[in-house]
Amino acid sequence: MDVHGGGNLRRVAVVGGGIAGSLVAKSLQFFAHITLIDPKEYLEIPYGSLRSMVEPCFAERMLINHSHYFSNGRLITSPAVGVTESQVLVADGRNVDFDFVVVATGHHDPSLPITRTHRLHQYTAENERIRRAESILIIGGGPTGIELAGEITTEFPDKAITLVHDGPRVLEFMGPKASEKALRWLISKRVNVKLEQTIDVNDMWDGNKSFRSSKGEIIIADCHFVCTGKAVASSWLQKSILKKSLDTNGRLMVDAYLRVKGQHNIFAIGDITDIRESKQGESAKRQAKVAAKNLKMLMVGKEGKMERYVARTPTTAMVSLGRKQAVAQFSITTISGILPAFIKSRDLFVGNTRKKLGLHPTLLD
């Protein structure tokens, strides 16, 4: 089945409904015939997910049906499985004709359900797991693992939490001072932090309560959470025209204008790109803005006015430690406590993202 646009408007296929893809679809929906292709019916604001595990009602704001911000286009709820010179191939059998494509598939997470309602139920179930557990194991000491430990110990201070990290310090993407401040905070909350140890996640199953670390330590926990990195969602491109545009890490190589190298009408944004910068929400938002502008320029024949995307070396990085604490690294100093929490931890930038999508920051639609 072919999906065609009519009239004089150009056809744009946006593949991936995360932060980057959603913002592009919203920005262009009255400028082109947009088809948004996503396995889910909703956008999940990822930096609100950990808060939602301990406070399921928080998920009501950060899970947004695509139809709430994307009202003038076509939504296909099925994963893309390939791309040719003129079509995106979809798992449900449809072939979406395009003039331009934006690839924004981010990271692969097969556990995400299709509907928002089902996802809300998942958060309620995760919350019940945490509530019932007396002891909890968190695997991974990056920002996800640290923030999850912070959320749980703040909401449930009596839980016995063990955090296992394979590196010599937590939060290795930040400087040593930030790592030390986060570690001291965790210890003050009685989190048992085990550094330079691993646990074989391939040898784990639901209901497993005994875990052996790489140093032979036995850790007993009623439930566990794996907070290590997810694979880039680019396997669907391995047999497509873009297979030679993938680097050795499976990321799409892009030029200064966010076009896939060697392609004139195919863009890539978000975590799937090879851009050397922190893969954070703010980067996705900036890339979406530049890609949308450049697509508009191409559509009206003003290629010379396209904007170059400039990757930023982050001078600021923040990690929440529950609702009222955070650690922040600035260009001249590193601090922790209430001040950085005021900037990030209270709302985790969920309200700001909703506003960029044209939605009320706090009121539900």
From TrEMBL:
Keyword terms: FAD, Flavoprotein, Oxidoreductase
Keyword DNA damage: no
GO cellular component, as recorded: cytoplasm
Superkingdom, natural source: Eukaryota
Gene3D superfamilies referenced in this protein's UniProt entry, alphabetically: 3.50.50.100
FAD/NAD(P)-binding domain sequence ranges: 11-282
Pfam families, alphabetized: Pyr_redox_2 (PF07992)
GO molecular function terms listed in the Swiss-Prot or TrEMBL record: electron-transferring-flavoprotein dehydrogenase activity; flavin adenine dinucleotide binding
Family under the similarity heading: Belongs to the FAD-dependent oxidoreductase family.
Described function: Putative FAD-dependent oxidoreductase.
Record protein name field: FAD/NAD(P)-binding domain-containing protein
